[in-house]
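re: ur question from yesterday

yeah so i grabbed the chain u mentioned. its 420 aa long if i counted rite. heres the sequnce exactly as i have it in my notes:
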Amino acid sequence: MADPKRLILACAQPGHQLNPLVKKRERVVGGQRLAEPNGEGFPIYAPCAGTVTDVAPALSSTGDFVLAIFLENDGSGETAPALPGWDDPTDPTPEAIRLRALEAGIPDVARGGIALARSLAPTTPIQTVVLNGCTTEPLVQAERVLLHHEWETVLFGFRAAIRAIGAPEAIVALSVADRPLVGTLSQSLTERDAITIEILPDRYPQGLERYLLAALRGVDLPVGEDPATVGFAVFDVTTMYALGRALRDGQPFTHRVVTVAGDGVARPGNYRVPLGMPLGALMEAAGRQGTIRQLVWGGPLSGTAVASEEIGVCANTRAVLAYQQPVSFEVPTTDCIRCGRCIDVCPERLSPIYLARYAEHKRWDEAEAEGALLCSSCGACSYVCPTGRPLVQSIQLARYEILRQREAERASQPKEVAVP
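ran it thru and got these structure tokens back, copy pasting raw so excuse formatting
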């Protein structure tokens, strides 16, 4: 897919905002650093050459306005020189691997977008590193495409992650649907690789870490805990692909594969798109058809509707679904019948109906105490609810309000000023 005429690159990362390094009317080249963090975080880079038309607030997928860099593509294709690479993932030291991950602006997509460099430097001993290839949500195929067509690059990054962490064991976890890949993937492994390939049921949400570790090793991951607390490090395919390109080819993280589907596009498929590509431009590239009345950011079960086509693709954009008719829940005609199905299917062992009730009554503190922030937004609770209650949507609202209140409290705290 060709780069669009205009990009909207958000300068926001979990918990903080980046400092732009460019100004309005400044020309940049592909691969040039555009913004960098104050402390924790990672820089972002220009996916293409062009001119900065503005540095101003832009709408994000959460409905908030965040500082963004607006870049107009000049079509020249000019790029900055690549960083020096390595031919073997075991050549760089663990410190060099972490430094390159940071310099290349690679997020750990599975960890909510924190810097990958942090995940490659765990504070507790790691016994097993897992490549999570279990993409089981319907329609979402972006990571499966990378496994099929970019396995050598994914494996390069995965080997480097194993070296950086120093774990004695590694697993590539695939779903049953990817069993035909096993032969091809196995041919790339050598005797020095302590990597095994394991096939898991093609069952949603198998890719969630709690289900994944239980299926692989019978490990019971405590609610709200990181896999590192039980000796595991889990990485997604997109992140390992980006790490492989950064180490081998010296390329920063500027593009990702996105699944585009729905009856609003004539050419559904998996597209490699630049970060910051407006959703409207993505729809045009995929063959917009009819009138798109709803855009869903994510899969059909875990995704959320977004309010505008002027939102740029970012690191965690796995899929975008376009519908000519809005897909929504009807207002329930009955109250909860207390069947308990939502509790039975919740992979985080929460009580979705109670969380949703707290959200409906704006009782954010009680929702937080009940575990709203632990919700993975898989959507299983809404799917099984016989009364059609919008459970996951209500819990997402509670999460948003809790985090918004936390941010407001943080901003209201007096800042310490150094006295000379």
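noticed a couple things. DSSP finds 13 helices and 20 strands in the chain. also The longest strand covers residues 50-59.
anyway ttyl
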